[in-house]
Amino acid sequence: MPSSYPLQNLCLAVIAGTPAIAGCFVGLRIYARRRARIALGWDDYLVVLALLFSFGLIYPSIRHVIIWHVGIHIWDVDQYNLEPNYTEYHKILIAYNLLYTPILPLVKASIIFLLLRAGWVVTPIRRTLYGILVFVIGACLGPWLALIFLCPPLTGETSEPTVYGGLSCLTPKQGGIIYVFLVTANMFTDLLILPIPSLLVYRIRNASLQSRLTVIFSFALSLGVTAMGAIRLKLNYQGILYKHHESDWTYTIVYCLSHAENNVAIVIACMPPLRSLILRWASNKDEEALVRDQSDTINRRIYGESFTLRPMSATEDAKDQFTGTSKHNEEYNDTNVDEELWGRW
What we know:
Layout: H1 6-35, H2 42-56, H3 58-67, H4 86-100, H5 103-119, H6 123-146, E1 153-154, E2 158-159, E3 162-163, E4 167-168, H7 172-193, H8 195-203, H9 209-220, H10 222-241, H11 254-269, H12 271-303, H13 312-323, H14 327-343
Antiparallel strand pairs: 1-2, 3-4
């Protein structure tokens, strides 16, 4: 047997690494709120909670990869250790379901509360967002409770008839139907939320076209998560519903796609609040350039034109700054308008 399995190592890196990347973005999101002196809201707390669930998912996922030999060719696996201890696997499965199921709905709810910050005064949008929020909660809570009662798995794609001392339980196929419902519900929620930012931006009159398009693009990035969910569903549904597996069924990292999907969703949910921080950094650079140009102009007045080696175009730009016609001022004003738009979010 090989001593190293690159595909399995890649899978483990995705499981452990993507939550760390998402954590960096969540940290920057909180920093942006503090820097702008904006109180943390439900949208921030929900995305932090989703991140905590994502970190909690690391251990049961790694155990799943190891005990099921994910990313290893089937002929490289010791046939006497091909199947795991099913008692341990049932515990891992329950822990995975409890932690995995709420992550994407929490991210969706975070985006909804973020949109409510800007759309609270628009009654139709507010009611629509509340309706989507109710759907998100229902589509999460029902499966989350149901998957607790998943039948303990046994060898040969079978399961025990009861769970927890005689309670009725879900068969593997019923559990597979719930998994498919979760994925499709999350994809459907993305499509429901997508038009809302466009409607909000349309109602904000003082925003430039660039600002409007940037807002729409920031929220449209969630379609990437929708695409990942569709790919995962296409690759998984036959194995989940019909127990149809390839001959080399262990040599795959489809299992790891859900972790990438979760954490990409967290990163994308942080993009709109982070843009205000980027704009502030950009405006600070413009202010520094403005100060340098003004200082250069003053020095020329004192020491003469030979003092500076700056190009003539830069000299004319520095002169214009005293008359209020500088390009720096124009960009800074656009930034202020943009920050006013994003300050609501």
